[in-house]
Amino acid sequence: MHRVRLSRLNIHSWVRTWVLAVTFTWLAASVAEAADSPSVGSPAPDFKLQDQNGKWHDLKSYRGKWVALYFYPKDKTPGCTTQACEFRDNVFAFRDAGAVILGVSVDDVESHKEFSEKHSLPFPILADDKKAVAKEYGVLKRFLGTVELAKRDTFLIDPEGKVVRHYEDVDPKGHSQVVLKDINELQAKRS
Fold it and tell me: Is residue 65 part of a domain?
C-alpha cells in the first residue's frame, strides 16, 4: 500500500515538473520574441496595409483624426470576435469623437473579409500577413514556439500622429469603452 502512494506521488511530481518546464520555456521564447513597442509620446510608425475589401490604408491618411489601432491574434476566435463586435457596437460614438477604428491581425485579406461580413464590421480590418507592422509595433509574439500572431494590444494615436496610450494585453470585453472614454478625456484636456 505504501509503494502505491509513493508511485502516484512520483507521477504527480513528474507531471508538475514537466508542465512547469514547458511553461517556462514557452514564456522565455515569447519574451525573447517581443520587440519594443513605440512609447507614449513618440510618433506612431506609419504603415500601408490592405483591408478586408482590398483597399489600401496608411496611417498618415488619418492625420487630423484620433485612431484606435487595435491588434488582435486571429479572426473567428471568441476573444477576437468579442473585441471586434464591441468596437462595432460603439462605432458611432467613435465617429462622433472624430476617431477611427482600425483592426490589425496577421490574417490575410480573405480571412478578414469573411470575418467582417459575418459580424457586420463597419471599420477596416487590416491584413498584416507579412507580419511587418505587428513586428514594428512590438506586438508580434510566438505562441507555442512556432506560430507568430499579434498580441491583443491597442495604440491610441492622436490627430498629430503620436501614440498617447498603449493598452497592453487587453481584456476584449469592455475594451472599446475604455478607449472611447480616454479619447473623450484627452479631447477635453486639449480644449
Answer: yes
- Taking residues 9-23, report their average pLDDT: 47
Label residues 42-66 b or e (16+ Cβ within 10 Å = b).
eebbebebbbbeeeebebeebeeeb
Task: Give domain status of residue 10, yes or no.
Answer: no
CA-based torsion, 48, 165, 91, 137: positive or negative? positive
User: 29 lies in a domain?
Assistant: no
170 in any annotated domain: yes
Domain count, the chain: 1
> Would you call 129 exposed, middle or buried from its count of C-beta atoms within 10 A (0-12, 13-18, 19+)?
middle
Do 45 and 69 touch, CB atoms closer than 8 A? no
CATH number at residue 89: 3.40.30.10
CA contacts within 13 A on the Cβ side of 24 = 6
Residues labelled as active-site residues: 80
Domain of 41, in residue numbers: 34-190
Query: Are 61 and 121 spatial neighbours (Cβ–Cβ below 8 Å)?
Result: no
Tell me the per-residue pLDDT of 71-122, one tens digit each, with 9 for 90 and over: 999 999 999 999 999 999 999 999 999 999 999 999 999 999 999 999 999 9
In this structure, what C-alpha cell is assigned to residue 159?
A: 490627430
